[in-house]
Design goal:
Shape of chain C: elongated
Largest sheet of chain B: none
CATH topology of the largest domain in chain C: Immunoglobulin-like
Strand content of chain C: 25-35%
Largest interface: A-C, 100 and 95 residues
Radius of gyration of chain C: 26 Å
Strand content of chain B: under 5%
Largest sheet of chain C: 6 strands, mixed
CATH architecture of chain B: Up-down Bundle
Number of strands of chain C: 11
CATH topology of chain B: Four Helix Bundle (Hemerythrin (Met), subunit A)
CATH superfamily of the largest domain in chain C: Cupredoxins -  blue copper proteins
Strand order of the largest sheet of chain C: 3-2-1-5-8-11
Oligomer: heterotrimer
Structural class of chain C: alpha/beta
CATH architecture of the largest domain in chain C: Sandwich
Radius of gyration of chain B: 19 Å
Distance between the termini of chain C: 27 Å
Number of strands of chain B: 0
Order of helices and strands of chain C: HHEEEEEEEEEEHE
Chains: A mainly alpha (580), B mainly alpha (193), C alpha/beta (250)
CATH superfamily of chain B: Cytochrome c oxidase, subunit III, four-helix bundle
Shape of chain B: elongated
Number of helices of chain C: 3
CATH class of the largest domain in chain C: Mainly Beta
Helix content of chain C: 25-40%
Distance between the termini of chain B: 65 Å
CATH class of chain B: Mainly Alpha
Number of domains of chain B: 1
């Protein structure tokens, strides 16, 4: 069968009745669709559901840290073994099954065809397959909670020999299921990434040159390239680790000629570019939102692109900063500390460009803009604290402490969570045809941001005070048993509870507005990019008439024009041509 | 009116390169990184373990050489298939595709004999570092040969009817990649003793 | 600065602390500058009646210099940080000052054990002292350590000394330290090593030479004859067939 799902309306809750509409079964519309918008929704809902699970896991282990030895309400007793599973699964879920599907797959799928002016991805059926593989990976991962021994407990980094032998990690079935789930997730994103890259390369509307492509599309494409180049060696490593686990090979077993450090290199060669895979889409969405709500061109579109490519390329030569004290040749550390501090340079320039975009603007503090601005404010903390870790001499102290945990949450949370909320609040009208409630949106924003800082600022302090990672109870360490530190741990835990509680506002807003929100026009934000030229939500096929593009995406406040925005597909009238 | 079989995006080509070919290149690129990682790991280990040469001396260089010849020849058929497809000769393209696939199956049969012999000698996946890499890398490669041969046969069905001829070039590209991986494998696993 | 959070007990701790302070000052400056710019621009250019946005491409020299010059200043700051960072690293991890004693540190699921020279001062002799959980060393003395693992990866970390090194099975990784004050200091394992990762607490007890001698006397076996003993092969569990191990100078 070669026909894609026909007549499939993009989203739940939409009631479009355009000519040519014909009835499609629930199965075809929601579960077997090849429409990029529906696939985006599938990724979005799966990712956010897993985010709730990941958040719950964090609640449980933070309760153990705040009140050690007490039963956690809604869970029970956290034994040392279960603690290890909780932190392992929290990290794995958040990176692979929340950040990636929401930022890359959901927004990539929804936005790319719309923003480049075509009707779908170049291979819609491969697109559908990518989600199905992803869903299978998520199911396998969740199933691992229920097997004998429980979910894998060897940390999301899965270092052998701990991860290779069940007698060491005590979660042997979970360990293999975890590995299979991760490998399948990688395959899903390879499949998806190919669509993103090739559709952007080949499917653009006539007139859209490279420099007319919106930044967020560029970012998702570059992220897909980074992912594709970095994940290959880790797929090889995953096969090797799986064989060590199940077939008695000794790739990583030092007693039989293997090398545990090989896994670390393979893992982090992927692991470092991976953080940029997660960061870039968020940066892209923030750029779009800032331009729209400051009513201004981006301060340096090409600078943003060049610094992104520079960061992406450099990201392949910094990986061993995760292994400074791992037993690598110490001379290598000198090389990697130089490359690591070097990579801070293009990213810093990009952030300066973002801030400079505000200059001369006319800034509206809508909910999406609040999220976008808070991304910059919070990511700055993540970025500067990274310097402490990238400088090898300082990393000797901070490595594997809570300082690292706080650092990467100040980069991951802005990317995965703030980026998600920025994108969702901004594109919700286009996705669902309704406006979200601004008041609820702002309550949700402030509660989330404040709670986020309450969780992680204390952890910088406890980390600097010597709290090492992945320890389920500091009672055995007299230097860590000080009341001041315990109060900080409790404060952090309270932050988690408050953060989770405030998500109720978002969930309510999201679902209530689907039915009762004000109906959205085509272009409620007066934005220039092509997705705002179609109905909200867009019909199957997106454009009744495929657009032609005449200019870049950031022509705001162009002199000589009555309106302060200029859509990419608006033809130039003779009068305007004369005036400009 | 029947629904279009392809999205409009699929029919466009802003870069001038046909979409299917672009996709094929990206698939090959990602596969290169997978094999690259595996081979780099092997080379690093091999350099650190000179004694692996003893284990490696048990591989069947003649079989490996024959298989190299088989794959190179089958790649030649893949090129001829592409030429036929370009000339709109669907039947010719299908014939050469089938010959290429035949080469792939011959490769796998030879490998089957090779491995049966080695397993009987007691060299299995867990027999030591060299053998773990040997079976993993060659096994992964063999899976790609098998997949490629099967896809080739499927594409040959359409090609014979002069339908979907651009796919012939794409699967041919994939086949060349499979060939090139083997060109690296053969010296590393068979010749380096 | 870190004195507030953790006191220090080794000679290289102050060097690391000074490096951390330097980084804190430099990044702190940029952080505050960037946040200030962000908040100030939000306030200054908030939407107001009668004011519209300006058309700014980013190529205007009088504006782009605000990005370009800070960009170069950041590069300079990075270099200023890199130089001491590498110097500290080389001192702690690459150099190996002459040591009075060598101690061997064993990590395993889930305990730390130690092998120290006995009264004869030499390691791998019959009067070596083996302890579990407590490592006794003399204050103001330079020690070499040899870190091994018997099963999975562990990591030997003494926050008060700013000392940290992963233990890799199959290797003996060396390092050094010189303590500066007496006391009992925590050893935390800082590499995920399974169920007992948080349970393998140990201590390093720094004593005056007199206290140390007294301790040694109380645990030694005077009847032991000082003969040579082959060093135990590091690595995995009971496996002794692989006697090769790589010694890594740290």
């Amino acid at each position: 069968m070669t026909t894609p799902a026909t007549g499939a309306h993009a989203q739940a809750g939409s009631h479009g009745h355009e000519p040519g509409h014909h009835e499609v079964s629930f199965f075809h519309k929601y579960l077997w669709s090849t429409d990029h918008k529906m696939i985006a929704m599938q990724y979005l809902f799966t990712g956010t559901a897993l985010a709730l699970i990941g958040g719950y896991l964090a609640y449980v282990f933070r309760m153990q840290l705040a009140f050690p030895g007490h039963d956690v309400p809604g869970y029970g007793l956290v034994t040392p073994n279960r603690y290890n599973s909780l932190v392992t699964m929290h990290g794995s879920i958040m990176i692979f099954w929340v950040a990636m599907p929401v930022l890359v797959a959901a927004f990539g799928n929804f936005l790319i065809p719309l923003m480049i002016g075509c009707d779908d991805m170049v291979f819609p059926r491969i697109n559908r397959l990518s989600y199905q593989v992803f869903l299978v990976s998520a199911i396998i991962l969740l199933a691992s909670f229920f097997v004998h021994g429980g979910a894998f407990g060897g940390a999301w980094t899965s270092y052998p020999p701990l991860s290779a032998k069940g007698v060491y990690n005590l979660t042997p079935i979970g360990a293999s299921l975890w590995l299979v789930a991760v490998a399948l997730e990688f395959v899903a994103f390879l499949l998806g990434g190919i669509n993103f890259i090739v559709t952007t390369m080949n499917g653009r509307a006539p007139g859209m040159r490279m420099w007319d492509i919106p930044v967020v599309v560029w970012m998702i494409v570059i992220a897909s390239v980074l992912f594709m180049a970095s994940v290959g060696p880790l797929i090889a490593g995953a096969v090797m680790l799986f064989f060590d686990q199940r077939l008695g090979t000794a790739f990583f077993d030092p007693g039989r000629g293997g090398d545990p450090l090989l896994w670390q290199h393979l893992f982090w060669f992927f692991g470092h570019p991976e953080v940029y895979v997660v960061l870039l889409p968020a940066l892209g969405m923030v750029a779009e939102i800032m331009a729209v709500f400051a009513r201004k061109k981006l301060f340096g579109y090409r600078t943003i692109l060049y610094t992104t490519w520079a960061t992406g390329i450099l990201s392949f030569v910094v990986w061993a900063h995760h292994q400074f004290i791992a037993g690598i040749d110490p001379r290598m550390a000198n090389v990697f500390t130089i490359t690591t501090l070097l990579i801070s340079v293009p990213i810093t320039e990009m952030i300066f460009v973002y801030i400079a975009t505000l200059y001369g603007g006319s800034i509206q503090f809508t909910t999406p803009m609040l999220w976008a601005l808070s991304f910059v404010a919070e990511f700055l903390i993540g970025g500067v604290t990274g310097i402490f870790l990238g400088a090898s001499g300082a990393d000797i102290y901070f490595h594997d402490t809570y300082f690292v945990v706080a650092h990467f949450h100040y980069t991951f949370f802005p990317s995965a969570i703030i980026g998600m909320f920025a994108g969702l609040t901004f594109w919700y009208p286009k996705m669902f045809g309704r406006m979200l409630n601004e008041t609820l949106g702002k309550i949700h924003f402030w509660g989330t941001i404040i709670a986020f800082n309450v969780i992680f600022i204390p952890l910088f302090i406890t980390g600097a005070a010597g709290d090492q990672r992945r320890i389920y109870n500091y009672a055995l360490f007299s230097e860590q048993e000080r009341p001041g530190l315990q109060h900080l741990r409790e404060l952090s835990t309270i932050g988690v509870i408050v953060l989770l509680a405030f998500q109720v506002f978002f969930l309510f807003n999201f679902f209530w507005s689907l039915r009762h929100g004000e109906r959205a026009s085509e272009n409620p934000w007066l934005s220039n990019t092509l997705e705002w030229t179609v109905p909200s939500p867009p019909p199957h096929g997106n454009f009744a008439e495929l657009p032609t593009v005449y200019r870049g995406p950031y022509e705001y406040a162009t002199p000589g024009r009555k309106e302060d925005y200029w859509p990419q597909n608006a033809p130039i009238t003779p009068i305007e041509e004369g005036a400009l | 009116m029947s629904a279009p079989a392809r999205s409009i995006a699929n029919l466009r080509s802003v870069t001038g390169i046909p979409t299917a070919r672009l996709v094929t290149w990206w698939v090959i690129a990602s596969e290169m990184f997978i094999f690259g990682g595996l081979l780099a790991s092997y080379v690093m280990h091999r350099l650190a373990h000179p004694e692996w040469a003893i284990a490696a001396s048990n591989t069947n260089t003649k079989a490996g050489a024959f298989n190299t010849f088989v794959l190179l020849t089958s790649s030649l058929f893949a090129v001829l298939a592409h030429k036929a497809a370009d000339a709109e000769d669907g039947k010719g393209a299908a014939k050469y595709l089938r010959l290429t696939a035949l080469g792939g199956f011959l490769f796998l049969i030879v490998k089957g004999f090779e491995w049966t012999h080695e397993i009987r000698e007691g060299f299995v996946l867990a027999s030591g570092g060299f053998w773990s890499f040997y079976y993993t890398v060659a096994g992964l490669h063999a899976l790609h040969v098998l997949a490629g041969a099967i896809i080739m046969l499927i594409f040959a069905v359409d090609a014979a009817k002069n339908v979907n001829l651009p796919r012939v070039q794409c699967i041919g590209l994939y086949w060349h990649f499979v060939d090139i991986i083997w060109i690296f494998l053969f010296p590393l696993l068979y010749i380096a003793k | 600065m870190l004195q507030r959070f953790a006191t220090s007990g080794s000679t290289f701790a102050p060097q690391i602390d000074h490096l951390i302070l330097l980084i804190a000052i430099l990044v702190g400056f940029w952080f505050l500058a960037a946040e200030f710019a962000l908040f100030w621009l939000c306030f200054r250019f908030r939407r107001r009646e009668g004011h519209s946005a300006q058309y700014i491409t980013g190529e205007e020299k009088h504006l782009s210099k605000w990005v370009t010059w800070p960009h170069f200043a950041v590069i300079v700051c990075d270099i200023v940080i890199l130089i001491p960072a590498i110097l500290v690293w080389v001192n702690v991890k690459q150099s190996s000052p002459p040591a009075e004693q060598t101690v061997r540190i064993f990590s395993q699921q889930w305990a730390w054990s130690f092998q120290e020279p006995g009264p004869d001062g030499a390691l791998d002799t019959a009067d070596d002292i083996r302890t579990v959980g407590d490592l006794h060393v003399k204050v103001n003395a330079t020690y070499h350590f040899e870190l091994q693992s018997r099963d999975v990866l562990h990591s030997f970390s003494v926050p008060e000394f700013r000392l940290k090194q992963d233990a890799v099975p199959g290797r003996a990784i060396t390092g050094w330290f010189k303590t500066t004050r007496t006391g009992t200091f925590d050893i935390q394992c800082t590499q995920m090593c399974g169920m007992g990762h948080g349970l393998m607490a140990a201590h390093i007890i720094v004593e005056t030479p007199e206290q140390h001698a007294a301790w040694m006397k109380s645990v030694s076996n005077p009847a032991a004859v000082a003969t040579s003993v082959v060093a135990p092969a590091p690595g995995t569990g009971a496996s002794t067939e692989d006697s090769k191990f790589a010694e890594v100078r740290q």
